[in-house]
Amino acid sequence: MSSSLSQNPNAKVIVDCILATPFTLSVGEVIGSSKDISQQFQDLIRIKRQPIPQPIPFVRNVQGIPPSASFACLASCPLITVHFLCNGQLVKAIIDSGSTLNVVRNSIAKTVIKMPMDTSHIMHMKDANGGTSKLLGLIPHVSLFCGAAKTWAHVYVSPDNNSDFDLLLGHPWAQGNTISIVEKDSGTYIVF
């Protein structure tokens, strides 16, 4: 016994015909028929986080500004000066986000801060003019108030010199107290 289909020696053609035959299934039947199909549907409908493209840094035209003029602009800009209260006394501080240290003059450390200095933390500091000075030690956890805002700083003690400020607060102070320096048309603001 044989049928007309069995007479056709090309089984691949028959399989292709069967696979090409359309028939109706519900989505539930399709998903329920195979774990792999169910997983593929889940993967297709799952919300995927799109990576944020990283901006490509570039510099636009910098011609036309002679170095001496740009230096004059930097040199003539006033320093950010803030008065802090430390142990009930006013201390004149300069905020310098480019500094890697917090530094206080020795006379202010002795007369205002009045806390023990750890002399095992001696280091050398380079100043903006290229000079080097030896710092005398470290005073940790100095509290500084600006109005109602209380901040903390680990300050290195420098020998007394003829600087116009008592205290230099650098990047460690700003970062440790989550301080922001905001530039606006109306001026420079420190946000506590």
What's the SSE blueprint?
Layout: H1 4-7, H2 11-20, H3 27-33, H4 35-45, H5 67-76, E1 80-86, E2 89-95, E3 103-105, H6 106-113, E4 124-126, E5 132-134, E6 137-146, E7 149-158, E8 167-169, H7 171-176, E9 180-184, E10 187-191
Parallel strand pairs: 2-8, 3-7
Antiparallel strand pairs: 1-2, 3-8, 4-5, 6-7, 9-10
Helix pairs in contact: 3-4
Could you explain how this protein is built, in words?
This is Peptidase A2 domain-containing protein. One of its GO terms (biological process) is proteolysis. The chain has helices at residues 4-7, 11-20, 27-33, 35-45, 67-76, 106-113, 171-176, and strands at 80-86, 89-95, 103-105, 124-126, 132-134, 137-146, 149-158, 167-169, 180-184, 187-191. It folds into two domains: 6-45, no CATH class; 79-191, Beta Barrel (Cathepsin D, subunit A, domain 1), CATH 2.40.70.10. The chain has a six-stranded mixed sheet with strand order 1-2-8-3-7-6. Strands 4-5 form a two-stranded antiparallel sheet. It has a two-stranded antiparallel ribbon with strand order 9-10. Helix 3 crosses helix 4. The termini are far apart. The protein has seven helices and ten strands. The protein is rod-shaped, with a radius of gyration of 36 Å.
Task: Describe this protein with a few key phrases.
192 residues; alpha+beta; Cathepsin D, subunit A, domain 1; 2 domains; two-stranded antiparallel sheet; 7 helices
Give the biggest sheet: 6 strands, mixed
Portion of residues in beta strands equals 25-35%
Q: Based on the structure given, which CATH architecture of the largest domain is correct?
A: Beta Barrel
User: What would you give as the CATH superfamily of the largest domain?
Assistant: Acid Proteases
Query: What is the tally of helical segments?
Result: 7
Structural class, by secondary structure, is alpha+beta
